[in-house]
Amino acid sequence: MTEGGKTARSDLWGGAGWVVLGLVIVLGALRMDRFESMGAQLYTMPGFVPGLIGGFVALLGLVLMLRGWLRQRAEEPAKDAPPIEPLLNRRIVITTLLSLLYAGLLLGRAPFWLVTALFVAAFVALFAPAEHTPARRLIVSVAAGVLTSAVVTLVFEQIFLVRLP
Q: Which of 52, 56, 74, 91 is spaced 20 to 30 A from 11 at the CA atom?
């Protein structure tokens, strides 16, 4: 299989993963309290924006799958094809572990602003370009963590009036 064939297959699998994730988000959004008894309108319900985002994630996953399927049909598979890269690579495993640590273990047990700053800083530090010096990695990751945490906290608490854990 050519380099494009590897891309086609990874687009199919990756797209399927995004579709599943998007549908899980939509289902979670639909299960959220709608506050209808309080007179809430559709666009003010807590699950509205996550539901839209989940729907778009699923839709874009379908587009990715379609692109991979079309590429795969257009190519003839080579008999001496190199092996396909594993579905779970290092970056996916690190992202999953960081996300589970953040959402499953730390969120709600420590102040939101602190947990979010640490999560973003760790994420940026781990995925910074290899050519960055350790000092630059540290400065950029801490700045990104602090700024992201501050902006998210202010927007949700002051604009959306949502109390964060």
A: 52
